[in-house]
Amino acid sequence: MKWFQKTLRLPAVKRGFHLITDLLEAQLPELEEIEVGLAHIFIQHTSASLSINENADPTVRHDFEQHFNRMVPENAPYYRHTLEGPDDMPAHIKASLMGASVTVPITNGRLNVGTWQGIYLCEHRNQGGKRTVVVTLQGK
Fold it and tell me: Which top-level group of life is the source organism from (predicted)?
């Protein structure tokens, strides 16, 4: 059984839902050494998240952003954590709802997502900056 762990810096992106599957695979040549296994991807932030969903139609990512902005609005009068701006507390809530990690099967040296699936970086801040993910690969 092989184990690899790598910390990756993702480029800063605007607020929204962004496909990062190809970016991850490009930065993980170690995937090629695994015939069958798992990739666990964990984001080290409290105002961004990871998810797996539709990778073909960009309107899905647009609709996710629109829905979450309505579900978790900025400037709610009951928020107390407001010193970092009106997008900060909603970003924490959205990140908790979406989750900090995803686990994907590895098959024949590739992430084995479905035909219409991709890994999303969900950026919930207006100015989130570069994000860090820790990827742990295990398999044979």
Answer: Bacteria
Per-residue pLDDT tens digits for 60-93: 999 999 999 999 999 999 999 999 999 999 999 9
- Each domain of the chain, given as residue ranges in start order, spans 2-139
Report the predicted TM-score, pTM, of the whole model to 2 decimal places.
0.96
The DSSP-derived string for 52-103 is EEE-S-HHHHHHHHHHHHHHS-TT-TT----TT-TTHHHHHHHHHHH-SEEE
Rounded to an integer, what distance in angstroms lies between the CA atom of residue 100 and that of residue 38? 17
Task: Give pLDDT < 50 ranges for the chain.
Answer: none
